[in-house]
# Entry
Amino acid sequence: MWTKVFSGFGYWDVYSWIIFFFIASGLVLWIRSMGRSDYKKGTEQDEIFYGANAVPEDGSEIQVPASSAYWGFVEALKGYYEKLAEMHSGLTNDYVGYMVVVAAVLVVLVLL
# Structure
C-alpha cells in the first residue's frame, strides 16, 4: 500500500531506500572495522601533534587568536569588512529589520 509515493519529480521507492541504507551502513561498518588494532588509549598515541615539539602544559601557549586565523582572507576583503563594521550596531532589532527588508524584496522579485 505505501511502497511508492508519487510526486511531481518521479516516485520515491521506500524499499529501495531501506536497502540503500542497509548497504551503506554495512559499508561504513566494514571500513570502520579495517582500523588499526594496535591503538592503545591513554598512551602517547593520544598526544596532540604539535609540530614535533613538546606540547605545553598551559593551553594559552597553543591558542591561535582569531585575528590571525583568517588574516589573508580578511585582508583581501578589507573594503567589504569596513563597510560591514560601519553597519554593525549590535542590536538584534536592526538585523531582524534587514531580514524583513530582504525577504520583502525577494517576495516582490518572485511575484514579478
The mean pLDDT is 83. Residues 14-33 form the longest helix (20 residues). The helical segments are 14-33, 66-69, 71-76, 78-87, 92-111.
